[in-house]
Amino acid sequence: MERMRAHLEVVQRLLAASVPEVAAGRVTVRAVAREPGVLTKVALEAHEAGLDPVEVCRGPRGEVQQAVAARLGDRAIDLVAWAADPALFARRAVARAVVVQAIVNEAGRAVELIVPDEHLRAAIGDGGVNVRLAAVLLDWKLSVRGASAAAAARAAALAALARLPGVDAELAERLFVNGFRSPAQIATADEQELLGVHGILPENLEALRAAARALAGAE
């Protein structure tokens, strides 16, 4: 945390020296994630309607962005518009790939991004640096999957969940969206977390968990 704060102060100072909107407080740095010498990601927030924080900090022809990267000694710097919505912020934070879908698990503070297979390598980055720094910026768990693998995993998870008594296709979908991928997860899940899924009733909870334990033991 202290290192992140130190990075934030350095980036804020460098941007303020070249960007009047930052110096005046009209744009602020919300968060910084950095792997020195490789990549820095900067979350920016504008405090005026119609002001694009990324554009003003990029500068003409990207000159400010490039100058900050050079001063930091990094190969690249990603400027990201901060958003309160974790799905939108995660999409922006990954920056280097098209995102097909963002699956948010608010209870677990986790986001799974689905990208086209051909964008998977760029989304993850060399050695995982891109997704790792995006997760730091987001301050949530963040994972990335290619569309083909995600579709196969989704189909398998929905089929497994639908084997539980009382779980139809619609409820299986809601369980999946809330981060449940198998009966084993339901068997060990916190009671309140399960009851937070629309369609899970208190009177049916114990029977559902007992069935989940039985299925998990048979797997």
Structure explained in plain terms:
It is a single chain. The two termini are 41 Å apart. The protein is built from twelve helices and six strands. The model has no long low-confidence stretch (mean pLDDT 93). The protein is α/β, with parallel strands linked by helices. The strands form two sheets. Strands 1-2-3 form a three-stranded mixed β-sheet, with helices on both faces. A hairpin with a 4-residue loop joins strand 4 and strand 5 (110-115). Helix 1 packs across helix 4, helix 5 runs antiparallel to helix 7 (129-138) and helix 8 (147-161) packs across helix 9. Among the domains are: 1-82, K homology (KH) domain (GMP Synthetase, Chain A, domain 3); 162-218, 5' to 3' exonuclease, C-terminal subdomain (DNA polymerase, domain 1, Orthogonal Bundle). The protein has helices at 2-18, 20-23, 53-58, 63-72, 86-94, 120-124, 129-138, 147-161, 169-177, 183-188, 191-195, 202-218; strands at 27-35, 39-46, 76-81, 101-105, 110-115, 141-146.
In short:
With 219 residues, this protein is of the alpha/beta class. Helices cover 52% and strands 18% of the residues.
In round numbers, the mean pLDDT is: 93
Helix-strand category = alpha/beta
Q: What would the principal axes of the Cα set say about the shape? A: elongated
- H/E element string? HHEEHHEHEEHHEHHHHH
Instruction: Spell out the CATH superfamily of one domain.
Output: K homology (KH) domain
Tell me the fraction of residues in β-strands, as a range. Answer: 15-25%
Beta-strand segment tally: 6
User: According to CATH, what is the class of one domain?
Assistant: Alpha Beta
In the CATH hierarchy, the third-tier topology of one domain is known as: GMP Synthetase, Chain A, domain 3
Low-confidence stretches: none
